[in-house]
Amino acid sequence: MYLTVVQRLQTLPSVLALAYASLMGSMSSVVAQQAIPTCKAPNPGEYLLLVNSPRAENQGQLRRVLPSETKTTTCRYLNDTVTRIGGFSRIEDANRWAKFIRESAGLSATITTRPAEAVAQPVSYRPQPLGFGYAILVDYFNKTELAAQVQQVVGGDVGFVSYGQRPYLLAVYTTNQTEAYSTLQKLSERGFFAQLVDARKVMLLRQSVKLQ
Fold this sequence. Notes:
Strand order of the largest sheet: 5-10-7-8-6-9
Radius of gyration: 24 Å
Structural class: alpha+beta
Distance between the termini: 82 Å
Number of strands: 10
Shape: elongated
CATH architecture of the domain at 128-206: 2-Layer Sandwich
Low-confidence stretches: 5-9, 15-21, 23-33
Number of helices: 5
């Protein structure tokens, strides 16, 4: 019995050391995740490529196939760790790069954008369709004060559009399907009557609703 107790006491430091190492490893992982910044939003009219790269191994794969002068940033987007590649002015270019990365590095990529700022045209009023992508519309039931509440949820300007010959608030216009569904869910959870539609069928009437 005495030997058994001694043996247990001798193995105790090893057990504690393993537990401590495991704990420190978990803490390091948490700290590392917290240290990764949130991805910077694209500039108006810019297309971003967000490459899914949760591990250092994935980030290394990506660096090996990209030209050395390519500017990349590791950041967090919708709780995922991604590599941000910006500077695309056309969605066709962003799509080509996404395909190249998928075929050469085996990594998936998401394309996101932000509508270009409308240029004032005081001479004539010509509503234009939003273009390719997804639009999240909110029925405001003729209560313009809802625009301020929608703005708080989406964290940006709210536009004014026409869809199916009816007026709506434009909460988000994006080519990123994940972002569109995420915004739709947030608005629905807050009690707004929101819907996701084909942006090509939406007419932009006003870029930003003036809040009182």
